[in-house]
Design a protein that fits this description.
By secondary structure, the protein is mainly α. Helix content is about 55%, strand content about 5%. The protein has seven helices and two strands, in the order E-E-H-H-H-H-H-H-H. Strand 1 and strand 2 form a beta hairpin. About 30% of the residues are buried. Bound molecules: protoporphyrin IX containing FE.
Length: about 220
């Protein structure tokens, strides 16, 4: 079988993904550099590693909570309309409430006013929406590596402190891929890949607002 390889430069992790064609394949190829850059952002870099601290993790949760709190309101209506028109088992689970509850488990509340996030794509059509959703739903897959590390390093799990990183267990990524395949020849692939890259880039810049961990790279 054809396999792509995601390599996490600077670590020993190497993950294989089955090769994909069509819109999924184009989204995957177009966003690979942005994904690799994001994984290496100073805020996210400690997440899969054994030296992860409470402070590192709280920083990630806070930054993600702020991000989803801003992004999701404009997304949810459009997504509901899209899903309602389809015969699909796919359902989007809002991330912000999970992140808020994870923070609450760790005795923290989100800040009053999250920083603004310029450069988010405006969700004006199905192509743009699918590009955004590819990023948000695909992001659950990182949990396959991150959730076990949260258990090992910080003792967190799907009911305490690490709800968000256990989303991969719901299997929605598989349903989303089926939904995406149904749109393969019906949407503007360029618009979809463009909006996916915009989300990666917007999140990267958003993370720059949070103080990086105060230690040198291993
Ligand atoms: C340290 C942080 C991260 C790690 C370690 C990580 C790791 C991974 C892993 C292991 C996969 C699965 C590859 C496979 O299926 O074999 C994946 C997929 C993916 N991740 Fe991440 N990830 C991280 C952060 C993010 C973030 C913040 C986003 C976006 C918000 C993101 C978006 C995606 C997407 C869209 C995919 C699906 C790729 C595809 O199968 O087409 N990731 N990631």
């Amino acid at each position: 079988m054809d396999h792509d390889t995601i390599r996490n430069s600077g670590s020993t992790r190497s993950v294989t993904q089955p090769g994909a064609t069509g819109l999924l394949g184009r989204l995957r190829t177009a966003t690979r550099p942005a994904h690799q850059a994001l994984e290496q952002h100073p805020i996210l870099r400690p997440l899969p590693g054994p030296a992860l601290t409470d402070t590192d993790y709280l920083r990630v949760l806070t930054a993600f909570a702020d991000f989803y709190r801003i992004l999701e309101p404009s997304l949810l209506d459009e997504l509901t309309k899209l899903v309602d028109k389809q015969d699909t088992a796919y359902r989007y689970q809002p991330r912000w409430p999970l992140l808020r509850d994870d923070l609450r488990d760790l005795h923290t509340v989100t800040s009053g006013n999250p920083p603004e996030i310029p450069n988010l794509p405006s969700i004006c059509d199905t192509s743009t929406l699918l590009g955004v959703m590819y990023v948000l739903e695909g992001a659950t897959q990182g949990g396959r590596i991150i959730a076990p590390n949260l258990a090992n390093t910080l003792g967190l799990n799907a009911t305490c402190g690490a709800r968000y990183f256990h989303l991969y267990r719901q299997g929605m990524w598989q349903h989303f891929k089926v939904l995406l395949a149904g749109y393969d020849r019906r949407v503007n692939n360029t618009a979809a890949t463009h909006s996916a890259i915009q989300v990666f880039d917007a999140l990267y810049l958003h993370l720059d607002h949070y103080p990086p961990p105060n230690r040198s790279r291993p």
